[in-house]
Write a structure and sequence with these properties.
Rossmann fold; seven-stranded antiparallel β-sheet; 25 strands; seven-stranded mixed β-sheet
Length: 510
């Protein structure tokens, strides 16, 4: 398995089932019992064949749709570094085109150029030659599963996600799935299989994530997870009475329905149009509320013999505009402390926290003056001029590590595979292995003993980069035609940043 994480769900939570509340006075409200996923975290590596399992209603299918990008989370982040092919059995009913047209459209999205002959090959591999003109939504589930499997195999995508495909495949196709999984593992690619077919999961994966009541309950090797899951399912299926079923797994059920923090992202009506009440409905309730409040206010004035109403000073347009300028707008980027250490302020309680030089933080919102950054799931604010903004979605030059190596101190570059093998691990785990020289407990930047190398920790307190010296600075600038004091290049799974003012390389792997 490769050391690089290529797909992540980070604190994905507050996702709600699309159904209306039965409360007449909150006709479009979402209650805590409607929470679909709660604070869900999952890291997926290169060279991994991951099986995602769970009891019915556990929301494991939703995990697949979030990973693929088909659905956006209500809160949290999805980080995706590679191209992927997503195959979901439930998409069948949405396809009203013929099998031939469906395959032709799908192959147009492949990373390589295809021909009509490739379309015929895929259809033949799926055993659907006699149904090439049949509409896809008229296929049976096994036929559609075979078609999606054939497309996924041919796509050559870096990541394949199968959502409830295996259980519809016959024995011959399961054997093909086993072979495909082995190929992906050997080629350091990634395959994710979400399914109820436990025996097929056991044959096609090398790692298991068990989703239970919208939460990650357990993850590990097949030997670690499958026996525990099978015992759990045996107990669940043995229940008879409604009372037994209600009391079974009650702690996990309660964890799923724990009311989340009331943040901006919690207010789905502000973010998702499909949750907005109809305009006519809003107008009716708004005017009714205004009339009732007005009548009540008039009654109070009459009974107190008050004939004059003092009206407070109105805000002028300039004041309103200034208020709006200070509102935070949601965004996603990163920031690096370059010059000196900075102090950031907790937006909830005003507590201060110091971030050392080369501290790397996640920016989640901004206004005209400040960034809002996240550290250990807490919001802090910092002036924009104190951070160097970094957007990984920007277009950067791409250079190999080999071409950059002559301009790096050998302390890091000669052993970079060893150092990078620690990336994405917890602060406590890394500091035990690499033995910091001092400041072992520093939250952001920790120097390594007897080395001109420091470790950089991210907003989750996991290692995501290093700093080390630049050598031959002038030659580096000439070689890559660098005009500024700060230069960023994409290299493999990470980014090398040259801080030429301070003669330091910064390597970051998100």
């Amino acid at each position: 398995m490769g050391s690089s994480i290529i797909l992540k769900l980070l604190n994905v939570t507050h996702y709600y089932r699309n159904k209306n509340s039965k409360k007449w006075y909150l006709p479009f409200d979402y209650g805590e019992e409607d929470i679909e996923l709660n604070n869900f975290n999952l890291h997926i590596y290169q060279g991994e064949a991951l099986g995602i399992i769970g009891e019915p209603g556990s929301s494991k299918s939703l995990v697949g749709r979030l990973l693929s990008g088909e659905i956006q989370p209500d809160k949290g982040r999805v980080v995706r570094k590679k191209d992927l092919f997503f195959a979901d059995i439930e998409d069948k009913l949405l396809q009203s085109v013929s099998v031939h047209e469906f395959v032709k459209q799908a192959t147009m999205l492949f990373r390589y150029k295809t021909s009509d002959h490739k379309v015929e090959q895929i259809v033949r591999y799926a055993h659907l030659e006699d149904k090439i003109d049949i509409k896809v939504n008229h296929l049976t589930n096994p036929e559609y599963a075979q078609l999606l499997f054939a497309l996924a195999r041919t796509s050559k995508s870096s990541i394949i996600i199968f959502n409830h495909i295996l259980k519809y495949l016959d024995e011959s196709f399961v054997e093909k799935a086993i072979k495909l999984s082995d190929e992906y593992i050997n080629e350091n690619l990634t395959i994710i299989i979400i399914d109820d077919a436990i025996e097929s999961i056991a044959k096609t994966t090398n790692y298991i994530a068990w989703v239970s009541h919208g939460q990650l309950r357990m993850e590990g090797s097949l030997k670690q997870v499958l026996p525990v899951f099978k015992d759990h399912e045996h107990d669940r299926l043995s229940l008879v009475s409604d009372e037994e079923k209600a009391n079974f797994d009650v702690d996990w059920k309660k964890s799923r329905t724990r009311t989340p923090e009331l943040t901006y992202n919690f207010k789905r009506i502000e973010r998702y149009n499909h949750v907005k009440p109809p305009v006519a409905f809003v107008r009716f309730w708004t005017w009714l509320s205004v009339c009732l409040v007005g009548l009540l206010f008039m009654a109070i004035l009459m009974f107190n013999n008050i004939g004059k109403l003092e009206i407070g000073q109105n805000l002028d347009q300039a004041t309103i505009q200034n208020q709006k300028k200070n509102l935070y707008e949601e965004t996603l980027g990163y920031g690096i402390v370059l010059d000196d250490s900075i102090t950031v302020e907790n937006m909830k309680n005003g507590d201060k926290q110091k971030i050392n030089k080369y501290g790397f933080v996640t920016i989640t919102a901004e206004n005209n003056k400040n960034y809002r950054i996240d550290v250990d799931n807490k919001h802090y604010k910092v002036a924009k001029n104190q951070l160097r903004y970094f957007d990984p979605a920007s277009l950067f030059e791409s250079h190999s590590t080999k071409s950059l190596a002559p301009y790096m101190q050998k302390n890091y570059i000669n052993y970079y595979e060893f150092f990078n093998s620690h990336l994405h691990k917890k602060h406590s785990t890394v500091t035990e292995s690499l033995v910091p020289e001092n400041d072992k407990n520093n939250r952001f930047v920790v120097p390594i003993v007897q080395q001109p190398i420091s470790m950089i920790f991210n907003d989750e307190n996991r290692l995501n980069g290093f700093t080390f010296p630049i050598k031959k600075k002038e030659e580096l600038k000439d070689k890559f035609d660098i005009k500024d004091n700060f230069w960023i290049t994409k290299s493999g799974d990470g980014y090398f940043m040259a801080d030429l003012k301070n003669n330091k390389w910064i390597y970051i792997e998100l």
